[in-house]
Amino acid sequence: MKEEFIVALDQGTTTSRALLVDLNGRIKGMQQRPFRQHFPKPGWVEHDPEEILTSQMEAFTDLLKTHHLQPQQIRAIGITNQRETTVVWNRHTGKPLYNAIVWQDKRTAALCEDLREQGLTEQISERTGLVIDSYFSATKIRWILDNVPDARTLADNGDLIFGTIDTWLIWNFSKERNHLTDYSNASRTMLFDIKKLSWDAYLFDRLDIPLSMAPKAMPSAGLFGHLVIDEHPIPIMGVAGDQQAALFGQGCFEIGDSKNTYGTGCFMLMNTGKEPKWSSNGLLTTIAWGLDNEVYYALEGSIFIAGAAVQWLRDELQFFEEAPDSEAIALSTAKDNPVYVVPAFSGLGAPYWDMYARGAIFGLSRDTGIAHITRATLDSLAYQTKDVLDAMQRDAGTQLTQLKVDGGASANNYLMQFQADMLDCEVIRYKSVESTAMGAAALAAVAMGIWDLEQVKENKSIEQVFAPAMNPNERSSKYLGWQEAVARTRNWMAPMKKTEHL
Ligand code: ADP
Fold first, then answer.
1. Beta carbon of 307 within 6 Å of any ligand 1 atom
2. With 70 as the cut, is the pLDDT of residue 49 above it?
3. Residue 30 within any structural domain of the chain
């Protein structure tokens, strides 16, 4: 009999990827296709939904071709996707009314301000776990209805439907034209009641979006439809938004289990178990996944500038050629570096939420050089992570014992050691950094009964454990320095905002 596999489709913000995973959880191949980013106006970010579809399909069919696979050898497909990005299309013709409005898009900032002024902050937080922000899908749908000719009439007639990217893919891939999403993606729309596990009719009404446009929300592991290749139907069995998929792929199944992804920004999620925990520190409450008739929740904190600060050293300050060079440069300084960099380039996110903060370097002296600033910049990723994790621990009432890491900057050993020292807990890096795709594959494999949760954990092998080695006095004095530095960046732009220099 020919070998069988699971395929993970990882539809990201810049590329569509397909990964081939064997039934022992090893990645055997990968194909990826970039697609175009559209920036029609400052702050606007769009993708062509048709291009998302073709790039994703090509990545998949090329994967089959490259590895000489018959569709019969693919037991199941798992989908993970860029979250919140929204498409509205005609349910009869399948044609999108407008480009996909991407999560980064800020065009609905004023509409969000309006919703806050209408006093919806509390209700939205209680029902959806989210803060009112243009980041989430709801105001993007509303924008399309308000701005695309005929959209409102078509929507009122019941001709239009919406979806996040998972939904768009499933609808187009499934021969049944299934209009479905999973709970993790639904929980990022700002329209989904995360406790009742249903669309919130009141919020649809307040946002003036017809409820008839919504997909059916389902658990993350289960049958979403069949993708037919050469007349062979392959079941789509697992679906989750990218950060939740990474949490699953990292094997964070117990309460308190946490992962941090060090990319351009950092995304940290903590599994909080079967009951949602509401944050009093500016974190989001979100659905991690629905599995076996149970729903698991997570607290989520985002750091806007993480690896991007390393890019800044590389591109703007031209300290080095490649981001990984930062490690050797940082290590060339003495341990007691007095410099702090606060990379609040676009304000500060959780737990500060200060859009008027701006970046700064502190503790400069005559002998400060590139190495000090580089080391302090890497340190800032660890300090920001500690800020968010401390907030999470307070909200969740649990103590972290291990942090699982992935993403580009997690390859930096200096940073990972400093992170373990700062958090006073182990930092675990696995051999495979593909947690997101592995999460989607694992959801599909679990739904098929091929793996259980233990197996998902066993599939992973540890590459390195960073154990805390800093003495408590040093830790607290360094962290105090960071807090002082952050305090001095707060509200920096406030005097200027009156003169509209913002
Ligand atoms: P994204 O998915 O957000 O594009 P990646 O996970 O690919 O990000 O990580 C890339 C980011 O990580 C970049 O911002 C880069 O500056 C940073 N980075 C990559 N390698 C290293 C390294 N060895 N040390 C520090 N930062 C790094």
1. yes
2. yes
3. yes
What is the total count of domains within the chain? 1
Give the closest residue to 136 by CA, choosing from 199, 186, 198, 79: 186
Q: What share of the chain is helix, strand, coil (3-state, %, to 5)?
A: 35, 25, 35
Residue 324 near ligand 1, beta carbon < 6 Å = yes
Tokens 């495979």 sit on residue: 432
**Domain that residue 191 falls in:** 5-240
Query: In this structure, is residue 152 part of a structural domain?
Result: yes
Centre of ligand 1 from the C-alpha of residue 380, in Å: 14
Please check whether residue 45 is in contact with residue 115, taking contact to mean a CB–CB distance below 8 angstroms.
no
> Is 164 touching ligand 1 by the criterion CB < 6 Å?
no
User: Does 258 fall in a domain?
Assistant: no
Distance CA 489, CA 10 (A): 38
Separation of CA 323 and ligand 1 centre (Å): 7
pLDDT of 306: 92
- Residues 55-98 have pLDDT tens digits of 999 999 999 999 999 999 999 999 999 999 999 999 999 999 99
In whole angstroms, what is the distance from residue 447 CA to residue 198 CA? 22
- Among 174, 184, 176, which residue's Cα sits nearest to residue 80? 184
Collapsing DSSP to helix, strand or coil, 281 comes out as coil
Q: Is 412 in the pocket of ligand 1 (CB under 6 A)?
A: yes
Cα-to-centroid distance, 145 and ligand 1 (Å) = 37
Average pLDDT, integer, range 176-187: 96
The closest-lying atom of ligand 1 relative to the alpha carbon of residue 311 is 16
Instruction: Provide the CATH number for the domain around residue 44.
Output: 3.30.420.40
Residue 411, ligand 1, Cβ within 6 A: yes
**Letter string b/e over residues 401-422, b meaning 16 or more CB atoms within 10 A of that residue's CB:** ebbbbbbbbbbbebbbbbbbbb
**How far apart are alpha carbons 216 and 206 in whole angstroms?**
20
pTM, rounded to two decimals: 0.91
Residue 276 DSSP class: -
Give the residue, by CA position, lying nearest to ligand 1 atom 17.
307
Dist. CA 245 → ligand 1 center (Å)? 19
